[in-house]
Model the fold of this input.
Amino acid sequence: ALIVVVIGALLIIPHFMDANRYKPELEQYVLEKTGRRLNVDGDVRLSLFPWAGVAFSGLRLGNPPSFVEKDFLTVKSFDVRVKLWPLLSKQIEVDRLVVSEPHLWLVTNRDGAVSWEFRAQPAQAKPSVPSEPEPKAGLPIASLLVSELSVQNGRIRVIDHTRGSHREISELNLALRDVSFDRPVRLTLSAMANRSPVSVEGRFGPLGSTLGQGLVPLELSADAFAHLKLKIKGTLENWPVAPLVRVDVEAAEFSPRGLLAAIETPAPPTADLKVLERAALKAHVDADANAVTVSDAVLILDDSKLDLSAKVTDFARPNVTFDLHLDQIDMDRYLPPPSK
Done:
């Protein structure tokens, strides 16, 4: 009888709880914290059985008034459903988390202001409290399982009014399958970048229940603009706090001239139109927030082979050291053509 009453309550409560009454409070909170207006045009729908879920449509997050583009982010619909019963034992089982048609505007104004910088709030003084021992490493949940996490038909516009440039990534579809702590996560991504196709497939993980403790294997392959094929394999370490990436990168032989044409960028003028037709790359890369090191790199360009190692530190004022060994090159072929 108790089970029947509980299930009945879970089915009935959402019909008497109007989540839309809280939209003005949420919109005011976002305005105070970010200085931007948030609007949810559609209804917010709640469910508690058999899934605890939230769904809404018509979300708009605005830009500051100084921007011509009024929107920073729009989302056509959002839907998430979580199993209710496993939550009691700290197990999160998500049936689906779907974001449909998110559109993002990354804008640089004529005065150099950018739309992705949010207004910082002044720090509030906190009363002094006795120091407490640091919490033990780990997560406050026992397990995580997400059957479907996807972004459908997204769009990103990059607009720079200082240069008069406009770039766009459209038809963006991202899917993560079998998201959990103890199994590799499968990833697929596809998009059109300035009307040229880009796709990524691969997997990463397992992440482990103590995030940031240990190495996370990473393996990706990318096909960009119908010219460039990349393979990336390595590890990611301490990613939530201070990520350290160690990867081997390989670019199969491609035509730099064809790639530039695909991304609508003019190739540099050369005396010999047959150069910039063949390139390939292999390298090992170690990178963190403070430095990038490239080792054992081999670059093939037309008839030339370049062995390279380099290190970049202090990104604000870059300090670059490198060693190069080039076997041969005919520079006359790469010079601009004769002109009056």
